[in-house]
Protein 1
Amino acid sequence: MIKIYNTLSRKKEIFKPIKSGEVKIYTCGPTVYYYAHIGNFRAYVFADILRRTLEMNDYDVKQVINLTDVGHLTSDQDEGEDKIEKEAKKENKTPKQIADFYTNAFFEDFKKLNIEKPEVVCKATEHVKEMIELIKNLEKKDYAYVGENGNVYFDTSKFKKYGELARLDLKELKAGARIKVDKKKKNPRDFVLWFVEKGSKYKEHILKWKSPWGEGWPGWHIECSAMSMKYLGETFDIHTGGEDHIPVHHTNEIAQSEGATGKKFVNYWLHTSFLQFNSEKMSKSKGGILRLEDLEKEGYSPMDLRYFYLSGHYRKPLNFTFTNLKNSKNSYERLKNIISALKKSGEKINNKNIDGAKKQFLEIINDDLNSPKALSFLWDILREEKLNDSEKYKLALEFDKILGLKLDEEEKINIPKEIKKLSNERETARKKKDFVTADKIREKINKLGYVLEDTGKGVEVKKR
Ligand code: AMP
Ligand code: ZN
């Protein structure tokens, strides 16, 4: 039995799939105009824990992730320039070159973080036909209208349940107290389904398609409705994303999809809380971002970061500091050392001894994906006196099918820049036969926790 917290009901619910033994999941993917940061990856690692947990419970998982390569403007409120077009101009490239480059970078990090690749990866630009069909359907059902500027808007006042997911207070909005109503639309929350180039101040758009409303490009939200329903059906099981998507993007996805089909769109909405940095949500526009590569340069491995993510519950904010990351790195390395020692044991395994622990682990993770508790249970098992080393080893690897921490792999350690520099300086000193300086540098490297080993192939740096 799996229990998950559903944003729609604000309750932990027992998960019941639409079709027995199968789960269909849609994960909102990145806008590929720039590198994804470690805040974004918190959301994807969480979605990975979700799918691994479902797989462990014998579900056949079909997960779809989208790539937004058109339609996301610089403001989530349909204002500003298309993010991809803007970056293309800045870097003097085509939008496709930009999207391809950042898509590759995204999946490289995805792989390094040991995130299982979803069954379907789909691009907005390859699904414009489906989006136009959906908008035509909404227009037919009177949910869409053409504004003064020629853009097509979703009429939120027509969709009775609008804002249910985010518990929006629409009465307050109608009074017009908070949000100024754009003259071109009827209600403050109405959003664009289709942008028409003629009405836009951004001319010479490269990404544009013919449509019944004029040449232009889709709004941001419509892609997720069109692609999720194409690959997963009009009603599917689970939709994931970061909590910032609740009030606008996911609210609008529901309105579009349910408006068009008259059916419930998604049964369970799961949202990840933010990774915070300098006391704010990590984002490009706020306190700055860090990428996996930035951490690697400082000597942290992708698995150190994954361990750090797992140390917090996905529904609670996680505060990123280098001290916190360092603590995770230390724990992760200790864990790997213990497991590597257990591996050599070769004792006989009594399945009776391990079945109970396996069950207990599954119960922990099945209770709303409690990864911090799952990690501490793993530590408890490693300390358990009633289990022999081989049994502990087997259990650790079993748990790792969900944790995804590569506990059985010899990982190449990342040597910090500072250590590499010192090692090069020592080499230079040695070549000059300045052995006093060379020895001093070796000592300094030792104090910093690393050792140099002179091998036949040159010098190797290792952790002490
Ligand atoms: P975006 O490319 O901005 O659409 O973001 C991709 C995914 O990352 C979305 O699911 C966001 O909700 C999520 N996200 C963005 N910033 C953070 C953050 N600081 N912490 C956790 N998730 C985030
Ligand atoms: Zn989406």
Protein 2
Amino acid sequence: MKIAVFVSGGGTNLQAIIDNTKVGILKDIEISLVLSSSSGAYALTRASDNNLRSVVINAKDYATRDEWDLAVLHAVEESGAELIVLAGYLSLIGPRTVREYSNRIINIHPALIPSFCGAGMYGIKPHEAALARGVKVSGATVHFVNDKYDSGPILLQKAVDVRPDDTPEVLQKRIMRECEWNILPRAIRLIADGKVEIKDNIAYVIN
Ligand code: GRF
């Protein structure tokens, strides 16, 4: 199966996917496109270091949101990708792309949805909010993407304990290492194996 990975920043989740295509659970998966919303994303360096095709599509370079949405959609279609993986991608996906790739777009969010998610909850913010609320566990969620932030069917979640001396940065790193880099490749594996069914906005993993 071919996948397109969308990025905006450092790309450690992209790296986890790349690593798993080499020695791991994604050996039959091909990353046919890395699409970045920003030309400065370090994820682009990771893409070129691994000889992956990449493209920068920034909404600011398009006259309308519709034109940007179509450019994104065409790039993905041209790459032959059957699944779009949002790995630290900071833009809301356009309605046309969401429609054409219905139930074929997943996102990784660094909190246990429905906690600490929605518009503005990206980067360090979910971790700051989790510590401010005093939760005792936090983690990450892989979910399908619809036209609203973080509200599509939940596919996988993994939790870690929050420790009394955690700072947002320390918690963020623990969640990346122990949750995100693990459940995002696993989610791709499940979808590639046809083991996911969605009914009434609930995702079921079938054996
Ligand atoms: C991750 O925490 C991811 O959950 C969130 O954005 C961050 C991206 O990190 N959506 P990276 O670019 O994969 O290193």
